[in-house]
From TrEMBL:
Name of this protein: Imidazolonepropionase-like amidohydrolase
Pfam family, one: Amidohydro_1
Residue ranges constituting the Amidohydrolase-related domain according to the UniProt record: 59-403
Coiled-coil segments on the chain, per record: none
Species this chain originates from: Amycolatopsis thermophila
């Protein structure tokens, strides 16, 4: 990452500011790590700044992935997540962190780590400037009850309320930012069904109470209708998947929309159903396991959540062979094509809502004075074609905290 000039001026850009306003032409001035002026500059404000000629290209906030796994290692073998030695696994996680920011993602929320401290180590190294990566909130291994795990080798087990409290305390001790509960199954396991709920109310309540008492949030792998309702009842902050949410659960989520987030991880469903055949899981097997039905149910659920104003964010489960790292912006396309979002709404979900889920709504996710200078200069219009954000060659400049992670020399 380059050492910045104290001032940088993006001149004559199309400003997509993530307030919901239509893009407009203007200038954006950066001073150190902050945006100081957007639109028309005061006379002399840009004096001494390094100038980037925008020529009408889109300047927008960096993106957020709300369900990140640095340690998912592009394998088609779930058990391979546990088998990879820790030294190689750390190197892969470092590469994943770089892949996210290479792809224009400046905010990521960790959704589980395959080994105890890998997320924490990566977060700390990013914050110290030792490795490139997004603003990151680290997780630890997910917690499951006996018989309710998705992948045994990457899971901590806790049965009953007291063991849940102890597991939460141990994870907080290793330095995580949030706790992950694995509450339901996943069809690809062949044994754990997505509509089965393995945790009890008492176990979920104990985990959330302990985490919140210590200032940590809780996220949950929760596909079943009952698990979604348990999440709302007991204060789980971030619900992953929520595919089978029923009417009662939808009403509960709507009533809780000021504090709860949903991240469906839709690309996992799409790719597992249609694109995993080359990796040993053909479409016929995926349909037989229930993935076609789940995608249909999840699509209907997310359309309804969007209609009700529930905060739904893109991102999730990238890092398997058929959902490889570096393809993260596919989620935005799915939001538009499957969930009936406009391109603007999809971008707001990935930027402004990203600042909210990262707990920094006043400084991340918008192109506004006072916000951190986490910016993308895009050769194209994402509102006309949301897929442009999947083309890394179109991301001419990537900036985080006022420092260029990527510059395209022939566009200077």
């Amino acid at each position: 990452m380059s050492i910045p000039a104290s001032k940088i001026l993006f001149q004559d850009v199309s400003i997509l500011d993530s307030t919901g306003a239509e893009p407009y032409r203007g200038d954006v001035l950066i001073d150190h790590d902050r945006i100081v002026s957007v639109g028309a500059l005061a006379p002399g404000a840009g004096d001494g700044a390094r100038v980037i000629e925008g020529r009408g290209r889109t300047l927008m906030s960096g993106l957020c992935d709300a369900h990140t796994h640095f340690t998912w290692n592009n394998s088609g073998d779930l058990d391979g997540l546990a088998a990879l030695p820790v030294e190689e696994h750390l190197l892969f996680a470092i590469e994943s962190a770089r892949s996210y920011i290479d792809s224009g993602y400046t905010m990521c929320l960790g959704a589980a780590s395959a080994k105890d401290r890998l997320d924490v180590v990566c977060r700390d190294a990013i914050n110290a400037g030792r490795i490139p990566g997004p603003h990151y909130l680290a997780n630890g291994p997910e917690i499951a009850v006996t018989g309710g795990e998705l992948v045994k080798g990457i899971t901590w087990f806790a049965d009953g309320p007291e063991e849940m409290r102890k597991a939460v305390r141990r994870l907080i001790e290793i330095g995580v930012d949030q706790i992950k509960l694995s509450m339901t199954g996943e069809e690809i396991t062949g044994t754990q069904r997505a509509e089965d709920t393995y945790m009890s109310d008492e176990e979920v309540a104990a985990a959330v109470t302990e985490a919140h008492r210590r200032g940590k949030r809780v996220c949950a792998h929760a596909r079943s209708a009952e698990s979604v309702k348990m999440c709302v009842r007991h204060g789980v902050d971030i619900v992953y998947h929520a595919s089978f949410t029923d009417e009662e659960g939808m009403d509960m989520l709507e009533a809780a929309k000021d504090w709860i987030f949903v991240a469906p991880g839709v690309n996992w469903l799409v790719a597992t159903l249609y694109e995993a055949g080359d990796f040993g899981y053909p479409q016929e097997a995926a349909e037989a396991a229930g993935y076609k039905r789940e995608l249909e149910m999840a699509t209907a659920a997310m359309i309804e959540m969007h209609r009700r104003g529930i905060r739904v964010l893109p991102g999730g489960d990238y890092g398997f062979a058929w959902t490889p790292h570096g393809t993260y912006a596919r989620d935005l396309q799915h939001f538009v094509e499957r969930f009936e979002y406009t391109p603007m709404e999809a971008i707001l979900a990935a930027t402004a809502l990203g600042g909210e889920i990262m707990l920094r709504p006043g400084e991340l996710g918008k192109v506004q004075p006072g916000y951190r200078a986490d910016l993308l200069l895009v050769d194209g219009d994402p509102l006309a074609d949301i897929t442009v954000l999947q083309d890394k060659d179109k991301l001419h400049y990537i900036m985080k905290d006022g420092r260029f992670h990527k510059e395209t020399p022939d566009q200077r």
